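User: For documentation purposes, I need each entry recorded in a consistent format: the amino acid sequence on its own, followed directly by the corresponding C-alpha cells. There are two entries in this batch. Please keep commentary to a minimum and don't merge the entries.

Assistant: Recorded as requested. Entry 1:
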Amino acid sequence: MTYSRGVNDPRHAARVEVLLEALPYIQRFAGKTVVVKLGGNAMIDRELEQAFALDIVLLRTVGLRPVVVHGGGPQIDRMLEELAIPSSFVRGLRVTDARTMRVVEMVLAGEINGEIVARIQSVGGRAVGLSGKDGGLLRARRKTGIGGEDLGQVGCVEAVDAGVIAALHERGFIPVIAPVAAGTAGESLNVNADTVAGEIAAALGAERLLLLTDVEGILDRDGKLLPTLNEAEARDLIASGVVGGGMIPKLECCLDAVAGGVGKVHVIDGRVPHSVLLELFTDAGIGTEVAADATAARSASDARA
C-alpha cells in the first residue's frame, strides 16, 4: 500500500510553517493574561465578529487567559438618535446626563455585552458578561473636562478589583466587560473603554494589551505604519502633531498601561480578520507595538520578547 497522494503538495509545508511560527508565542504566553479591547468595525461586521470570537476562544484553548473589554459608541449614537436624545462631546468625551447614562448602560451592559458573550459561546468558549459595577470590579469618580467643563456622569477609574477577573479565570471563563463603573455615591458612570482596558490590564499585570481600531496602527508623518514605538518616540509623535485627534488618548492609554506594568501594548486594525492571532502569534505582526523603552524592537530574531 502506498501513500503518495499529495506527498509533495506545497500547501502542507505552508500550513506547518504557520503552526511552527506560532509555537514559540503560544509557549511564551501560556498562562499569561491578555486584555483585548474590542471596538470599531470589528463590532458591527458579522464576519469580523465571528473571527474575533474564534480568536478569543483559541487563546483560551492554548492556555492564555483572555479578557475582553468592549466599547459601543456607534450603537449608543444610534439609540440616542432613535430616542431623540441630543448628544454633545467635549474633547472627544460624551457629555452624559441622566437620560443619556440610562441609554449608555442599556446598550453597553445589556445589548452589546450579551451579543459578544453569545458569539464567543457559539464557537465553543465559556464567557461571562459583566460591567464594572458587578462585584465591585471598577470603582470610579466623576471626571471633569480639561477646562473644568461638567461632563455629567463620565467617570475615570480609581481602583480595579482584579480578584473578580481572577476568580472567573480560575473557573475557565472568559470575562467580557462593559465600561460602566460605579461612582462614589453608587451612581453609574460612563468610562472610556480604552481607559478601562488599560486600567484592567495594569491591575492584572497583563502580558499584553491589544486595542482594536479602524486604522492600521500608529502612523508616521508620511502615513506609514510604525511597527514599534518606545515611550520617548510616542511622546514625540504627540508633541510634534504627527499623532492627533482621537489617536492621542489611545496612544496615551498605551503609555499609561506600560507605565503600569503591562508588558507591551498593541494598536491593531480590527478590520483585518483574525487580527488578534496575527499580532500575537506571528513574527512580523500587523500593527504597532508600544513598549516602555527601546528594547522593544520588533524582529524575528528576538521573537518580540
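Entry 2:
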Amino acid sequence: MLGLRFFVLTLGLSLAPPIAMAGELSVHASPALLKLVTVAELQPQALDSVLDLPARVVLDQSRVARIGATVTGRVTEIHAVLGQSVKKGERLAQLNSTELSLAQSDYLKASSHVNLRRITVQRAERLFSDGILAEAELQERQAVLNEAEVDLRAAEDRLRVLGMSEADLERLAKQRTIYSYSPVTASIEGVVIETHIAVGQVVQPADALYTVADLSQLWLVAEAPEQQAHWARQGDRAFAEVPALPGVEVSGKLIYVADLVNPETRTVTLRMALANPKRWFKPEMLATLKISKPGAPALSAPNQALIRENQSDYVYVETAPGVFSLRQVKLGEELGERRVLLEGVRAGERIVVDGAFHVNNERMRSAAQ
C-alpha cells in the first residue's frame, strides 16, 4: 500500500508541467513571431518622476464679476438671462428708483443755486468797480458762491456713485428733467452664470443680481500633500488629464503655489492656468494634475516588456538574432508607463520592449511540451 502511494505521488510530480526559470529556456522565434516583437537596446536615459494629484476645474476669480444695482429701486425690466453672453457695458436690467430721483432733484437745486450766486457775484463786481460796494461785501458774496459750487460738485459725485455717466449728467444739466430709471450694466465681457433678479423685486446696492464670468480662461486647482509640496514652484510647466475629455492634451503653468499649509488637510493649494478658447472645459469638472520632476539617468523598460512569474519580474533579452532568453530583473520606481531596471541587465543589451507576451506564450508552450 505504501509503495502504491509513493508511485502515485511520483507519477503526479512527473506529470506536472515544468516551470522554466530564467536562463533555463531560450525561445527561438519563428518568422511569424518576430513580426509581433519589437527589440530595443537598453541605454540610460533621464526619466521624469510624475506626481499625480486629484484636481478640479474652477472659475478664474480674476475674471468673475458680481453685478448689483447702484441704487435702491424696483426692477422694471430684465434684459439678460442665465447663459447669455454679454458685452462690457451692456444693459442687463432696469430699475425705477426714487433715490435716484431725489439725488437728481438735489443736483438741479444746487445747479440753480450756483447760477443765482454767480449772477449776484457779477453784479457785486460791477458795483465794486463803480465804488458803490465795499470790498468786504464782494468777498462775502464770492464765499457764498464757492460754497454753492462745493454743494454742486458733491451732488454730481453722488449721481456718479448712483451710476450716472458723464453723458447722463450733461443731459440732466441741459434738459433739467428728472429721469428716475437706472440701468444695471455688465462690468466685464462674459457669460451670465448666475441670476438673482425678478420683475417687481426691490433691490439694494448690496444685492448681487448677476454673476458674469469670462470662461475663456479657467483655473485647475489641486491640493498637494505637504511632504510633496517641494515638487511645485510657481511658473513650472504642468500637465493635466480630464476624464470627461479623453484624448485632449492639457498643459499650462502653475500660477499659484500657496505659502501656507492647510492645517486641516495638511496640503498646499496649487493652481494652474487653463486656457479655454473653445469652451470645452466646464467649471467643477474633475481632473488629474501632473507635475514632473527630472530624474537621474537610469535603465528602464516599458511596462509591456515585463513578465511577472512566481513573484518575480523578468524581461526577454536577445542573446542571438531571433533568440530570446528570460532573465530575472529587480525593478525600481515606476515613472509613467516605464519601470526602472536596477539589476539583471546591462546597458547595451537588447530586450523585447513590445510583444513580450507572445514570446512568453511560446516559451510556456515549449515548456509544456
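Summary note for entry 2:
The two ends are 32 Å apart (CA to CA).
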